[in-house]
Every structure is written in structure tokens, then in C-alpha cells.
């Protein structure tokens, strides 16, 4: 009798756990569908949206807001990755300011990397099999007063 009770309790808790897992899976699937639907509507211009589209956006305001925030972040990151090209005059002013800062500095550390060299059309040292063993390694130079 006691064994039957233990077996029934084990089965029911397992059944409950499986039901909860299924419910979570269904909830995630519904959330994904909602995100896709709202994203599709948001891609349309406001003039192209139907009354049904507007109702969906009204019903899922939190999802629409989250998707807009994500798009804003994505656009911001893209803008940060764009290479900036200054006019000759701006570049001259910046170089003059940098030269003055270097002249006045007591100590100076210059840090460069692949982003700087490849932007200046200097090829990187990566080949089809990874880093080229013949590539020069990191360099550290002390340039003191002469």
C-alpha cells in the first residue's frame, strides 16, 4: 500500500513537471511568434499599416517598445563602427593639436593595432591558416631624449 502511494506521488510530480515544461515551451513559442509578427508590422511604414496591424501593436506595446529599443541600439552600434574621414583642414587641425600635446607631454604611450593599420591599407598578417608565423610580433620601443 505504501509503495503504491509513493509510486503515485512520483508519477504525479513527474507529470506535473512535464506539464510545466510543456507550458513553458508553448509560452516561448507564442512569444517568438508575437515578436515576429510585431517586427513584421514595425517594418511597414505607418501609412501601410492596417487597422488590424495597429490593433496588434496596441495589444503588444511592450514587445513593440522592446523591438524599437533593440533597433535603436543596433543602429547606434553600426554608426560607431563606421569609419570617419575628416576633411583635409580638420585633419591638419587635429594633427597640429596632437603634435602640441606630444611636445608638452612628460611621458607618452602610443597604442596601435590592427584597426589602425588595416584602415591605412596596411595588410593584416592573417592567412588561410590563421596568423602568419613570419608576421612581426608586438613591439615596444622606448624613445628617450637623445
From TrEMBL:
Its cofactor is Zn(2+). InterPro entries: DHS-like_NAD/FAD-binding_dom, NAD-dep_sirtuin_deacylases, Ssirtuin_cat_dom. Residues 88-146 form the Deacetylase sirtuin-type domain. It comes from the Eukaryota. Residues 74-108 form a coiled coil. Keywords: Coiled coil, Metal-binding, NAD, Zinc. One of its GO terms (cellular component) is nucleus. The keyword Coiled coil applies. The keyword Zinc applies. GO terms for molecular function: histone H3K18 deacetylase activity, NAD-dependent; metal ion binding; NAD+ binding. Belongs to the sirtuin family. Class IV subfamily. This is Deacetylase sirtuin-type domain-containing protein. The lineage of its organism: Eukaryota, Metazoa, Chordata, Craniata, Vertebrata.
